[in-house]
Design a protein that fits this description.
This protein is 80% helix and 0% strand. It has 61 residues and is an all-alpha fold. The longest helix is centred in the last third of the chain and has 26 residues, at 34-59.
């Protein structure tokens, strides 16, 4: 009789999840990391676009 593999597949998912989390932490760690720089750049562009839109809306009245 074959044993169920439910426990083994759960462990495999936990190991994969832990590996992904570890990679994300390593990727985002420290100041000046690539991820942090890209995120800051995206946020700056978005905030500038919102500011410009608000200013043009305000000046139209």
């Amino acid at each position: 009789m074959a044993m169920p593999r439910h426990g083994q597949s759960t462990i495999e998912y936990i190991v994969v999840f832990a590996a992904v989390i570890a990679c994300l932490i390593a990727f985002m760690a420290g100041r000046g990391s690539l991820f942090q720089n890209r995120l800051n750049e995206t946020l700056n562009v978005s905030s500038e676009a919102l500011t410009n839109t608000a200013q043009s809306f305000y000046s139209s009245f």
